Amino acid sequence: MISLKRHIDAFDEDLLRSTRNSFRDSLDAMGTSAALVCPHLGEGLHTSLTALQQKLVEGASSDVVASTGNEVRNELNAWGKGTAQYLKTLTEEVKGLLLTVADSTKAVADRDQTYAKRLDAFAGTLRTIGQLDDITRIRESIQESATQIKACVEAMVEDGEKARKQLQAEVTSYQSRLDEAEQVAAKDPMTGLANRRRAERQLLLRFERNQPFCVALLDLNGFKLINDTYGHAAGDEVVKMFAEELRSFFRSTDLVCRWGGDEFLVTLDGTEKEATSRIQPLREKVCGDYTLRSTGTATKVKVGASIGLAAWRKGEPMADLITRADKAMYEDKQRSKLTAPGR
Q1: How does DSSP classify residue 194?
Q2: What's the whole-model pTM score?
Q3: Phi, then psi, of 307 in degrees rounded to 5
Q4: In CATH, which of 3.30.70.2740, 3.40.50.1820, 3.40.50.300, 3.30.70.270 is domain 196-338?
Q5: Which of 48, 49, 89, 100 could form a disulfide with 27 if both were Cys (CB 3.0 to 4.6 A apart)?
């Protein structure tokens, strides 16, 4: 009987472990898909799901799995409502643009129809003139018609210029709004850095440029401990402060982006040797003590980062480049654990 109970317990533990792993993989897939479907809001959901994913560690009980499921449901509901509203607003913008174009088209058509009637009347007048026998009367009629035609043409030119300027102003306005929307869609809402979508597009452009560059992946050390100790608001605060320090550290020509969660990606032009010399001071100038305000009191926490650098090889696809940088970052994280105090 005792052996049977142990077998059942072991079976339950295997099932729970399998459930946790599947749940973690599902959260990662949902977050990634949401970021692709609607980058403007999907990045936020990805971040939230990543935080929840960290609860499903080895040894987490079935109660933790169940409560995490409820939190995931709430996050998905909130994201669904927000995304629906965002897409509705975007649809209204497009409808507004189409209505403006339709109104402009109608105005041009109405104007052309009005002038067509006037020109048709002039044609009738000319036909009448052609039937006159008195040369003096013919001359007077031609001069009168010429004056009317000139006035009509001038009015057409003036109206056409007004319509052109109005349409140009409307197009410029909508282009500006579309540019703003594009900028919003390319930014990480939490940090203001470029998001993963923009980073991937910039990487593709660099591949086409065919010039040497490197990619650096950074991952915060001990970030889970900060979340567990001070809460997710404190974790978000650390991410924001670290992002601002990164932005200040690198050049304006370097792309600094939030890759996801507490991971950041930076592109640096030049060789691996040049990139390495530029990255080295980062641990002293960006990493170190950060002061949290979200805890209610000024709380200092030590923030470090593992860094992985990889130089692009001509013809190499993006996935392979990122994989090499990620591997180098993981190796750096393992080294930092081995050299941590107390070891």
Answers
A1: B
A2: 0.54
A3: -125, 130
A4: 3.30.70.270
A5: 49
